[in-house]
Design goal:
Order of helices and strands: EEEEEEEEEEEEEEEEEE
Number of strands: 18
Oligomer: single chain
Shape: globular
Structural class: mainly beta
Length: 246
């Protein structure tokens, strides 16, 4: 289903007013309750709470995309619809966002991932003289999880296969599970600082390389301490053997 375009096409930030820039207001007032959404196939809908923590009303538009942050909402076709697509949230108030699956075919043997966009636009008349205001877009992961997948999302990080490339500058990860695994960082035993802390995700059945901040000398006995992001946005930590690629 294509998203109905309410506001003009937007990227991450939109310039709403121009003039002398004495102040740059770039912090979002509308806060999303969570850092990700998991839509279970057995559920009729998924809900998420938006709260306006600012001092002024906020106009909000929401839509989902397939992973391209630059795609115009009107051109995106996804098997989900979010309602209300546009709302006005008063200061200190909230809005419950409801997301429905529209029934188009999706894989039943693995998760699918989309991105939920929340665009906040300051209301007219809220811009003071000689100030620059921005419309701010927040974007979080949206997972569709089929029923009866093998294993659990919580244990998926422990199933990853870790291999250090011979040059010691990249770790190659293979994910044999039907779940997406998101990593915030990981360390190698014997090193004081994380060798990777840029965040990354490995899809079901995917093999993906992660460039390291610090070169790791290939040797036997290497171990990884990883920090994975769970369904609730918290961190699940674990250890794994880091083999050396042949």
């Amino acid at each position: 289903m294509k998203n109905k375009l309410i506001f003009p096409p937007v990227m991450s930030l939109i310039l709403l007013t121009v003039g002398l820039v004495n102040s740059l207001q770039a912090s979002a007032s509308v806060v999303i309750a969570g850092t990700r959404v998991v839509f279970n196939a057995k559920d009729r809908e998924s809900t998420i709470k938006l709260t306006n923590e600012g001092a002024l009303p906020a106009l909000v538009q929401v839509w989902l995309d397939k992973g391209d942050p630059n795609a115009a909402p009107a051109e995106i076709s996804v098997p989900f619809t979010a309602t209300p697509p546009v709302s006005r949230i008063e200061p200190g108030k909230g809005q419950t966002l409801r997301i429905f699956y529209t029934g188009e075919a999706l894989p039943k043997d693995k998760e699918s991932v989309y991105w939920l966009n929340v665009l906040e636009i300051p209301p007219e008349g809220s811009v003071e003289t000689n100030k620059l205001q921005l419309a701010i877009r927040s974007r979080i992961k949206f997972f569709y999880r089929p029923s009866d997948l093998s294993g659990t999302a919580l244990e998926a990080p422990s199933k990853l296969d870790w291999q250090l490339e011979r040059g010691g500058k990249q770790v190659r990860l293979h994910n044999p599970t039907p779940y997406f695994v998101s990593l915030s960082s990981f360390e190698v035993n014997g090193m004081d600082k994380p060798v990777f802390d840029d965040g990354g995700m490995v899809g079901p059945g995917e093999t993906k390389g992660f460039a390291l901040k610090t070169e790791v000398i290939p040797r036997s006995g290497l171990k990884i301490r990883y920090h994975a992001i769970n369904d609730f946005g918290g961190t699940s930590d674990g250890d794994a053997v880091l083999s050396v690629a042949p």
